[in-house]
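Q: I have 445 residues here and want to know how they pack in 3D. Can you give me a structure?
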Amino acid sequence: MFKRATGLTVAMLGMVLTAPAVAQPAAACQAHGQAALEAWTQGRFDQVGKDFAPVVAGKLTPEMLRQVWGQLQSQAGSFRSLGALAPRSLGGQDVLVAMLTFSDAPLAAIIHCDAQARIDGFRVVPAASVQPVAAAPEPAIAGAVSRAMPVPSPLGLLPGTLTLPEGKGPFPAVLLVAGSGPHDQDETIGPNKPFRDLAAALAKAGVATLRYDKRTYAHAAQIDAKAFTVDDEVTNDALAAARLLAQQPSIDPRRVFVLGHSLGAMLAPRIGQRDPRLAGLILLAAPARPLLEISAQQVREQGQRSHETAAQIAASEQAILAEQKLLAAADPRHPPVGSFGGMPQRYWLSLHEVHQVEVAKKSSMPMLILQGGGDFQVSPTLDFSRWQQALAGRPQTDFHLYPGLSHLFMPAGKTETVADYQTPAHVDAKVIADIAAWVKAQPAR
């Protein structure tokens, strides 16, 4: 469930191992944290936890550290360098941050210590997520009017932007729900901003949008990792945002749609199930299979492209198989303890209980399902085709496959790795035109 640079493997780039209390960065903490990161990046996994606090040492075994390190490299590319830890304030909390440079995507390590300078927080996130949340002012969009619209969440407001067409309205509106990982409201991936592309072009076509920073981006330091679920990551904030959007005078409350991308698309039927007032659902690159099944496919394919050994790939596949068996036998009332791939078992169990295709089949909402033919993360044959087969004959359901487009609905690259996302591009105009036409053709609910 990372996308990881965008994506489907939550374990990898969003590795949240603890939810520390009050950080106290000091010389001893800095020394311990730097030594732990050096041991980890050099493959000395049995030495990483020398200065871990008991709460972390019990979760991050040498084998778990080895496993996550392999996942990071399979998704972010080969490791290049480790920077020095430096004090930072994230979400109102003092921590230590060091940059990790990989061939395909930059990451950041975040270290937190307790009062005894023992490491009680150790996580890795996309480098962009440690940048200040207060970004530069929203650039003007020709033919549109944008204004700030924060979305309420239990951890605090999520910065958001409402983009309206020029004119009086009320307008049909689309709520943009991002994929897995800590994403800003533009769903920024390298130099690309797919959600900003959608907001700008849809406004010109007469459709309003609301996009917002994810909770994992805006308030990462406040998240309780032990209790974190996929509804906390996606569903609940999307429902709050949809209600807020429908309340705006410039928006037609009977024509509010949800557009989900990747994990956001996987959760779109669940969002529609919980808010029957929505006018329809738009799924971009929607996984039809369980996320761990997709992760296993990614481990094989990305591992081969990254020149991992057969033994390394097999070990990663076996770990995923063991996790699948654990979740299949788990009691939802008593989630397994511990974590997998850096995420708590409660989170994995919440994903295991998502049955997006079955929920979609029972829904009466109009649906538009879009897929890039060059997507190496969500499969055009194993996922998109499954949606087509399962929903064949379902009323008010439309499908579009776009040959040559990537997971971001931009021109697909040649490497079939996340390195392709570092090439500047924009969401294909045909995709946006199809979305706008479909939205405007749907009746008010």
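Q: Anything worth noting?
A: Residues 310-328 form the longest helix (19 residues). DSSP finds 14 helices and 15 strands in the chain.
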